[in-house]
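Handout, section 4.2: multi-component inputs.
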Amino acid sequence: MTRTTSEGGSSAVAAPTLDEHFFRREYGRVVAVLTRTVGVRHVDVVEDAVQTAMLAALTSWTAQGVPVDPGAWLYRVAYNNFVDDQRRKSGRQRILATAIDLATPASHDLPGSRFSSEVADDTLRMLFICCDDAIPPESQLVFALKTLCGFSVSEIALRLFTSDANVYKRFARARDRLREIDPELETPPLDTLRSRLPAVQAVLYQLFNEGYLSSHAEEAIRRELCDEAVRLATLLAEHPIGAVPETFALLALMYLHGARLGARRDATGGLLLLEEQDRGLWDRDRIRVGAAWLERSATGDVFSRFHAEAGIAAEHCFAPSFKETRWPEIASLYAMLEHIDPSPLHTMNRAVAIAESQGPAAGLAVLQALAPPAWLAGSYLWDAVMGDLHRRAGHAAIAQRHAERALASAPTEAVRDLLRRRLTSAA
Amino acid sequence: MSKKYLFLMRSQPSNRQQPSPAQMQDMYAAFNAWKEKFKEDILDMGGKLMPGGKLVTTSGATDGPFVEAKEIVGGYMFVSADSVERAIEVAREMPMLMPGSVIEIREVAGP
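Output:
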């Protein structure tokens, strides 16, 4: 039986297996490359074009096999979709003039190797472009999740614990701002965006924490966000524009925290205290990679908040047990963190580390010197720490009061269970 | 002796939300699993049909009433089966069969 060859050429192969997150990742890559080609003001049309190309792939690849270079196939089909769309529009409004040469779609038929070598560059460019001062960080995050990680609006809403409408609003805000950018400047060389590196690091840090600190019950969902953050941070660390100690430290902390992600819950999904976790479940491979990045981050004379946080995570990862943890080291790393990025939360954490090494009274002394702002004093964390330290110091009545308040304001049932275990056990 | 069936995939034009890339990944896996399961039955995976087209009659060619059609033929496929019941089984398990879409099964007349 004869079959016409697919749009992807005659080189289709039979093996239909694709990587676990192929469609999502490829979506991000193709959106980034096509956006660079046609300009960021067209990002909506680009996303539609890539979406349509993927639907075409679904039909074509299942029938005729996956082409040798699926990324290049998707790019070509998406590009043609984009051009068709612009042609249709240009009948009514001639807006195309400069950026795109409609006569030569075939010249954008990128060979595979060239495609993959440009992808990292284009992905990072997109990330730097969206980390614009005028775009609020929560919009930057949503824009990155949608265009670079390939999550839909509803999937983002599910992961950020918010509504579809809110996600869409945040996305639209970023998109609208990017549309205002002077078309001449819209695909600036990556180099000219170098000053945005801290903002890019911050959005990746936020992306990681959305997964790591999430109270989402499904580990796979939390892990997915952490993995996306690691993937993008790795691109950044391996690119000249981002290969600086802060980025290495950021990656180190992602790996070192990520290594313990799977051990934070018991078999029924309940949260586990650090001292209850089975350290045998910590991912040794991730710890090894994290330690290597931490070592690389120790070049030069920069000591960023990421260095301090990665250092703290490393102390936990390398401690043979809870008891044998080097709490004085951790306390001094928190002190450095307070110095770099003053926050009563860091002070509170330092107090906890001090309590472990010098006893509850020493920890309480730190907390009592701190006048917690309302947001902290009213949070379950503050009451949980106060309750725990007072209980261990033998102040039963005060401990009881804090324990009750902590339980009342716990955000989830899993957190409440954990607090109950911690705050009501015998002193 | 097995017979040859033409599958016509019809669907209603809808504004249903497009699948996300992650959902497409699942659809891809489901479709391949289906294809593997019925590989003995599927003669020709056929393909998707482009929207639009022409209607030719003795009085000429027109763009046709496709736009008004409630159900648009979006794809076709050939399946070999001993009975129409078996052909129905193949069609029913097809992952692309979604609410609002219909597969029309027609036996191809023998030689």
